[in-house]
Write a structure and sequence with these properties.
- It is a single chain.
- The protein is α/β, with parallel strands linked by helices.
- The chain contains five helices and five strands.
- The protein has a five-stranded parallel beta sheet, with helices on both faces.
- α4 links the parallel β3 and β4.
- The protein is globular, with a radius of gyration of 14 Å.
- The protein binds 1,3,4-trihydroxy-5-OXO-cyclohexanecarboxylic acid.
């Protein structure tokens, strides 16, 4: 099984940005965590981060026919981007949304998730562990070709 991990704007600032909300680990720690969780389970992974909405759209499009599922933390674009929602719908790959923080317990504008409308599942508020949960969900529901 091969999964694409997409992380949106400002996630490259992990450990510096609002550590009380997002924690003290770095983006590179997050990548290492994802790689290790995938390796343990024999899952191939590609991990990208971009601060640009169009780049995230391009990456979702490029995933068509190339991976078995997408794990996406669109960060602030979660709450604004119809383009990312449409891209996820266009490729129609199984997708899981992850947020480090519990967006449902934060400002009202974070309660809407456009990307989430094209995702089978959302894990929010579990920190890095949400990515592990997303891997396990996709393996359980879409790992048939393993
Ligand atoms: C986030 C939550 C978003 O509301 C925020 O804009 C982010 C990160 C999270 O992982 O908790 O940048 O997606």
């Amino acid at each position: 099984m091969k999964l694409l991990f997409l992380n949106g704007p400002n996630l490259n600032m992990l450990s510096i940005r609002e550590p009380d909300i997002y924690g003290r680990q770095t983006y590179s720690d997050l990548e290492n965590f994802i790689r290790a969780e995938c390796a343990k389970r024999g899952v191939e992974c590609e991990i990208y981060q971009s601060n640009h909405e169009g780049v995230l759209v391009d990456m979702i499009q490029a995933a068509y026919g190339a991976v078995d599922g997408i794990v996406i933390n669109p960060a602030a674009y979660t709450h604004t981007s119809v383009a990312i929602l449409d891209a996820l719908k266009a490729v129609a790959l199984p997708a899981v949304e992850v947020h480090l923080s519990d967006v449902s317990a934060r400002e009202a504008f974070r309660h809407i998730s456009y990307a989430g409308m094209a995702c089978e599942k959302t894990y929010a508020g579990f920190g890095f562990d949400g990515y592990r949960m997303a891997i396990e969900y996709l393996m359980e529901h879409h790992g048939g070709q393993l």
